[in-house]
Amino acid sequence: MTARRTDAPAASAARAAQLRSLLHEHAHRYYVLDSPTLPDAEYDRLFQELQAIEAAHPELLSADSPTQRIIGKVLDGFTPVRHAVPMLSIRTETDTESSGALAFDARVRRELELGESDAPLEYMAELKFDGLAINLRYEAGVLVQAATRGDGETGEDVTQNIRTIDQIPLRLRGLSPPVLEVRGEVYIRRDDFEALNRRQRELIAQGEKNEKTYINPRNTAAGAVRQLDPAIAARRPLSFFAYGLGEVQGWEVPAAHSLLLDAMVQMALPVCAEREVVVGADGLVGFHRRIGAKRDHLPFDIDGVVYKVNSRALQQRLGFVSREPRWAVAHKYPAQEQMTLVREIEVQVGRTGKLTPVAKLEPVFVGGTTVSNATLHNEDETRRKDVRVGDTVIVRRAGDVIPEVVAVVLERRPADVGTAFDLSQKLNGRCPVCGSAIAREDGEVDWRCTGGLFCAAQRKQALLHFAGRRAMDIEGLGDKLVEQLVDAGLVQTLPSLYKLDLEQLTALDRMGEKSAANLLAALAAKRSTTFARFLYALGIRHVGESTAKDLAGHFGSLDRFMNAPLEQLLRVPDVGPVIAQSIRTFFDQPHNRDVIEQLRAVGLHWPEHEPVQATASPMSGKTFVLTGSLPALSRDQAKDLIEAAGGRVTASVSKKTDFVIAGAQAGSKLEKAQALGVEVLDEDGLRKLLAAAAAAAAAAPSA
Ligand code: IVH
Q1: Residue segments in the chain with a per-residue pLDDT below the cut of 70
Q2: Dihedral class, residue 483 (left if φ above 0, else alpha if ψ from -120 to 50, else beta)
Q3: Which residues does a 6 A CB cutoff place in the pocket of ligand 1?
C-alpha cells in the first residue's frame, strides 16, 4: 500500500492489510485455482470484518480492497483509452491441416536465416480463446484500469465491468512495479453459457417478454464487457485468461514467453493450464493434433491454437510486419458455427415423452463433423426465433452440446418460405411415434406424448419405472437389462415382460442361467401386488407414490378408478385439476387401456375393496376457513385435524367454502360467511364433525 496520511489506529490499519491479503489469497484459490481451503462462511466473516474496519476508518479504503469489487454506476458512454503499447493482432493460418504449422515454422526459420542443420526452434503453444481481448493496467500492483482492444490504438475504458470478474486480481500477488499491463481474453465457459441460456428460457416461459436467449459465448462475453450498466455485466458469468503483456515499467520481463506465463501464475493471474513448450515443426503439429482431439471436451470454446516463438530475444529479432508479430501465428480449427438451409422441421419424442422440434438441415460441416439435425428446443423457442422451412439459419455445434439452431438469417429468407411453426398442427395433435394424443399443460413449455405405456420412444423409461423398487419391485430388472431387452426386441410392451423364457434370457450378454432364473422367479412372484403399487407403476404423469396410495385407497378398484370422471377424481384429497386431468388423459388413450388389460391377462392381480364413500366421511374434500381464536385448539392444531380427516383449509371465504370455524373475535370472515350462507361452526361443532369422520373411516375397508 502506498504511504498516506492516516488517522486510523495502527492496529486497525495492520488488521485491514492482513484481511485484504487473506481475502485475496482465498479468492484466488476459489476462483482461479478452483480449490478453496476456507469455508465460505469463514470467508464471509473475514470480508465483513474488513468492511466494518473500512466503514469506521474510510481513510483505510484502497482500490485493491476485495470490498471494492462493487457494482459501479450506469454510464452514458465509455471513455476512450489510448493504449501505451498498441494491441496488435496475430496472423491467422486458415489452413486447418498440419501443413499450417509446418508453414509457420518454415517462415520463422527463413526470417532468422536458419539452415537445415540448425537446431529446431522452441515454441510456446497455447490455446486461442474465443472471447474478447482486454488490457489490464496495474500500477504499483493495483488494478487501475481495464480497456478493450478497440482499433488496437485506442480502446474503451471498461474498468467497472471488469472489476466484477472475480478471477481477475485487484492486486497482483508478490510484486508492485510502477506499471505492468497484462493482456488476455475475457470469455464465457460453455457450462456457464448453457446455464445462462437455460435460465433465459425459463424466464421466457414465465412470460418475460424482454428476455432472449444468447447466440454464443463469444458475443455474450463481448456484449457483457461493453455493457453500460455494470450490474448487468456482473450477472454474466465471465472468466479470464492472461496470455501477454502491454506496457511494463520497473519489472524485468522473463527471457522466454513460457517463463512469463509461469510468472503470471505466481502473480495470481489465471493462465490456462493447457499450454506446452514444444520443439520444432513436429512439436507444433503434435500440439495442434492433441488439442484438436480434446477440443470438444474443453470447458470453453477455442477457434484454434496459438504458436509463439518462446525466446524473447528471437521475438525481438523477428519484429513485426503490418501490425502483426512475425513470431506468432494463430492456427485455426474448423468453425463451430455455419450457415445452412432448413429443409424440414420434425418433432422427436424423448424417453420421457417430451416432444422436441428438430430442424432437418442441408448437411453442413460444423465443429469438425457433418451436421444434418439441430435442436430447436421447444415450440416457443422455435416461434421466437421464427425458424421456418426454407430459412437459412446459423447452426452451432460446440463441445458435447447437441447442435442447435441459434438464429435465422432473415436477409436470406425466400419469398415462398413456410408458415410459422405450430407443433400441434404439424403433428395433427398425435404423437409421431405411437399416435397417442399430445398435450401441453398450463405453464409448461413442452408438449408431451400421453401414450406412456405404449409409446416405443418411452419404452425403456416406462419399463424401468414399472420394475422399480417402489413400484412392482422386480429385482434384477435394472437399466442395463432393460436396455438389452428392448434393443434385442424381446420386450416391446410391459406385458411381454411376463412372457420371457429362460432360453431368451440366457441368450443375452452377461446373463447366466442363475440370474435368468432369478429374474423369472421375481417376475412370477411379483404378479401379486397391491393396487397402490400397480397404480404407481403405470407412470402416469404427476401420480407419485403417495398420490397413488390415496387414489388406490379412495377408489378401491382399478375399473372404478379408470372410469372415474374428473369430478370424482377431484374429490380425492390432494388431487387437484392438474393431476386429475393427467389421469383422465392417460386413461382416455385406448393404447394405455390395452396394455393394462394385457397385464391383467398375464396374471397381475391385487386385492380390491369397496370405494370409500364420499358420504361416509363427512369431511373429505370439504373446504374449511378458520377465523378468530378457538377456546382449546390453536389454529395449527385445528388445521392439522381438519386435514388429517380429509378436509382442506383455505384462507378466504367464498361460495365454495363448506364450513367456517369461528372463535372469539372472529371478524370479516364470519360476516362474509353469514352473507354467503356458509355453514358456521364453533370448536364444539368442529369436534363433532371430526368424530363423525373418524367413525366413518373406521367403518370403511382400509386401502
Ligand atoms: S497473443 C501480439 N495469445 O486472438 C500477439 N492472442 O489476433 C497478441 N487471442 O484478439 C495476441 N488467444 O484476443 C494471443 N493465447 C492467445 C490468444 C490470443 C486468443 C486473441 C486475441 C486477439 C486475437 C489475436
Answers
A1: 1-7, 70, 613-617, 698-703
A2: alpha
A3: 88-90, 126, 128-129, 133, 185, 243-244, 306, 325, 328
